[in-house]
Amino acid sequence: NGGLPIGERILLAGRVCDQYGKPIPHTLVEIWQANAGGRYRHKRDAYLAPIDPNFGGVGRTLTDSEGNYSFRTVKPGPYPWRNGPND
CA 76 to CA 47: how far, in whole Å? Predict the structure, then answer.
């Protein structure tokens, strides 16, 4: 939309490894997340928090030669529901 998304900026980084701990180079990593208000940009998300027109909620990247990846994004807001037994 041309503007900046609402919310605290964060860096999400990690490393993709196989079952033996060996890094997996050049593999696709995809993330989906809620905006700073806890709302997903998805037709089935009925939460009343507003959609941020400047936040897409999805990202893709390839790992580097050592299996590393990173995303610059916004910290997702709290969800209005429980996600599972660890909540």
Answer: 14
- Distance from C-alpha of 50 to C-alpha of 37, rounded to nearest angstrom: 7
- DSSP H or E stretch at residue 72: strand 68-74
How many Å apart are CA 32 and CA 44, to the nearest integer? Answer: 14
Please write the tens of the pLDDT for every residue from 27-53. Answer: 999 999 999 988 888 777 777 788 889
For the chain, domain boundaries? 9-74
Measured CA to CA, the distance from residue 81 to residue 56 in angstroms comes to: 21
Q: How many CA atoms lie within 13 A of 56 on its CB side?
A: 9
